[in-house]
Amino acid sequence: MNTVEIQNVTKTFGKQVAVDDLSLEVPQGSVYGFIGPNGSGKTTTMRMIMNILYADSGTIKVFGDRLVGTCTDRIGYMPEERGLYKRMRVREVLEFYGELKNGRNLRTEVDGWLERLDLSDWANKKIDTLSKGMTQKAQFIATVVSRPELVILDEPFTGLDPVNVDVIREEVLSLRSNGTTVILSTHDMSVAEKMCDFIFMIFKGKKVLDGTLASIQNQYGSDTIRIRTENGTPALEGIAGVEKITDFGQLQELRVAGNHDPQEILAQVMSRTRVTSFELARPSLHDIFVRIAGPEAEEVHDA
Amino acid sequence: MPKSLKVALREYKATVRTKGFIIGLVLAPVVMGGGGIAFAIFENRVDTRDKTIAVVDRSGLVGDMLVDAAERRNATAVFHEETGEKIRPRYVIELASPVEGDPNPQRLALSNRVRSREIHAFVEIGAGALHPREDPAAARVSYYGENAAIDDVRSWIGRPINDALRQLRLTEAEVDLSTVTDLFDYLSPEPLGLVSVDPETGEISDARRINEVAVLLPPIVLMMLMFLMVMMGAAPLLNSVMEEKSQRIAEVMLGSVRPFEFMMGKLIGSVSISLTAAAVYLVIGIAVVSRLEMGQYVPVDVLPWFFVYVVAAVFMIGALQAALGSACNDASEAQSLAFPAMVPIMIPMFVMMPVLMQPQSAFSTGLSLFPLFTPFLMLLRQSTEAGVPVWQPWVGLTGVVLVTALFVWVGGRVFRVGLLMQGTPPKFSSIMRWAVRG
Question: Cβ(B204)–Cβ(B249) under 8 Å?
Fold first, then answer.
């Protein structure tokens, strides 16, 4: 069963097409990652699912129903920019947001979440006394305190230190294990790769990727060589069959051109330098993202 | 509980619980009635130094009589009857002989004495003052001073000069003044209300004595209170909505409540804040007035209308403010819209006195039936002694309800679009488009 079903949805702002004929299905209990460059239409799509923005055409069903003119308490929404009343105390503001969603046992829920996210000592402090990371955790609690069945998180990890990234990630996965459907947008491809059951990429308002990580990578095949050599990048330049070299310092990633055999490339490299590690791999999500939305793609697109 | 009420409750608590609200509750009437309060406190704090007035009497007729008049005044008005404390300045008349020829050198010399604080002012009485109809130019009485237009001495000196001249005219007409001792006694008409039949006893009741304060104060106080309630409840919505938008709180809220519910919640919260403040002011005000045994001046029959108008005005003007606030991205944009948003509040204040002086005029009636102004001006007219015909408040209220509903509906449409419109400066054309298209 799908929690969200989007069919042929288009949304424009003036002459700007923000979302163009988008169709998408988000299965219940999954973590669905939205990726895409800034301004590609992720937030607009999320706002339309929330019914904050109305689609110009097409239909959006959440929990099997169209949400025209209504707002459901079964969805928790955390926008990219944090929005909490700065002069309210942490506990008050969390209970208030929970009440707006008709949450139950809010006092207990709030206390439990504050404890889990290590904010208990700040419960009676005003929001404007919290650090950015704490505010973000408080915003996360405000989103989930009413136990929504669908949680939409727009850039939940932005601005968090690695410890708090882990904390929020664990809580998101915990929500999923309890049956909650999670939609999250992120610019961190490793997060999307590790956390998301499904990945959806939108670029210039159009869907360009949708599926599991494996299915997306399969579309591109094993066209990537990850290699470590004694002489690094200089030893790899000018090798026939290498379309692109991405230098990570200790490791280089080579994209193999269409009809070339990776073994031939390996032989050429070995003739130039000593190879310490060689792996034939499918492209990473980062690489796929850059192929679609990077300058190289822009050049192809413009041509 | 409906979500709009949850939003309203938060708004109400967030405002009423603050020290700023309590301080504002105390300070607002002080600031608004500051002029009146200062006048009452400092009314008797006058400059009690003696004031010498030079009189150049070209008629040669009234100078000595002015000296006598000043002495009579000084004998009764300068010192407090019981305490003997000096409470007003003595007026000392100094007679200056008129010079022949060009009067300007003498005027300059006297003006320089005023500048050097030697004398307070000087008066020139024309040679033909006794019979002004014969030569009005020669009959002129001129008062020269640094602050002549609002000088207390000028206000006083006119009467003794004219009394003296009248006395001389009667003497010239061979009227024996000793036979008419009360010739210059003045009777002021006593202001009374209309006589009516007492509905309980059936008898004709005495007319109530009215004074200026009793007539003017209740309408002015109620009008100022209405202004204050709108300023406390509706006016802050522009900045409040702008802040919620710029701090992205609005987007979080819209994930939980519909835009219309959100705006209604804010409006209900604002109305509650205004009603709380109004109740506090009225309870304290009535208690104070009753203690001063002036309870009869409280327009009790108008008070229910006052609360109805507060609710309507805050809804109507608050919806306008919230809609404009939703179109703003920062404080500077809100600042630029603050003035136009205040126009519906300021115009009734500008026309308050003309309406108060002639509450039954077509001008007053027409303006008070214009829905944006009805809560202010109809209330003002209802609070006057004359009152208004029974149908007028109801017609006015009908208009207010219709316009309020329209404003809330239109405001809700602008609010929904404006809240998510980031980075676009507010333009009248955009706001109108949002209002029409939603």
Answer: no
Residues 6+ apart with CB under 8 A from B376: B223, B226, B227, B309, B313, B345, B348, B349, B352
Residues forming beta bridges with residue A181, ordered by sequence position? A150
3-class DSSP assignment, residue B184: coil
Q: Half-sphere exposure of A101 toward its Cβ, with a 13 Å CA cutoff?
A: 31
One DSSP character per residue, A172-192 reads: HHHHHHTT-EEEEE-S-HHHH
Nearest CA in chain B to A142: B252
Assigned token pair, B152: 């207390």
E-strand ranges in B250-320 read none
- Picking from A53, A84, A101, the nearest residue to B249 by CB comes out as A84
Contact A85 B251 (CB under 8 A): no
Contact in structure between B241 and B266 (CB atoms under 8 Å): yes
Write out the DSSP string of B206-245: PPPB--HHHHHHHHHHHHHHHHHHHHHHTTHHHHHHHHHH
Secondary element (H or E) of residue B437 = helix B428-437
Pick from B10, B249, B420: CB nearest A52 = B420
Whether residue A68 lies within 8 A of chain B, CB to CB, comes out as: no
Phi-psi map region of A234: left, alpha, beta (phi>0 left; psi -120 to 50 alpha): alpha
- For B417, nearest residue in chain A (alpha carbons): A53
Of A126, A127, A154, the C-alpha closest to A52 is: A154
Residue A14 has pLDDT above 90, yes or no: no
* Cβ–Cβ < 8 Å for B28, B283: no
The span from the CA of B145 to the CA of B156, in Å, is: 14
Q: Answer whether A53 touches B (CB < 8 Å).
A: yes
Mean pLDDT, 10 residues at a time, chain B of 438 residues: 88 85 80 67 75 94 93 92 88 93 93 94 94 91 91 91 92 86 82 81 80 78 88 86 84 83 89 90 84 77 90 89 82 79 86 88 91 91 85 92 84 74 70 72
ipTM over 0.85: no
Nearest to B324 by CA among B236, B209, B194, B196: B236
DSSP state of B148: G
In three-state secondary structure terms, B186 is coil
Angle between helices B331-350 and B374-382 (to 10 degrees): 30
DSSP assignments along chain A, one per residue: -EEEEEEEEEEEETTEEEEEEEEEEEETT-EEEEE--TTSSHHHHHHHHTTSS--SEEEEEETTEE-TT---TTEEEE-SS----TTSBHHHHHHHHHHHTT-SSHHHHHHHHHHHTT-GGGTTSBGGGS-HHHHHHHHHHHHHTT--SEEEEESTTTT--HHHHHHHHHHHHHHHHTT-EEEEE-S-HHHHHHH-SEEEEEETTEEEEEE-HHHHHHHH-S-EEEEEESS-GGGTTT-TTEEEEEE-SS-EEEEEPTT--HHHHHHHHHHHS-EEEEEEEPPPHHHHHHHHHSHHHHHHHH-
Check residue B328 and report its DSSP letter: -
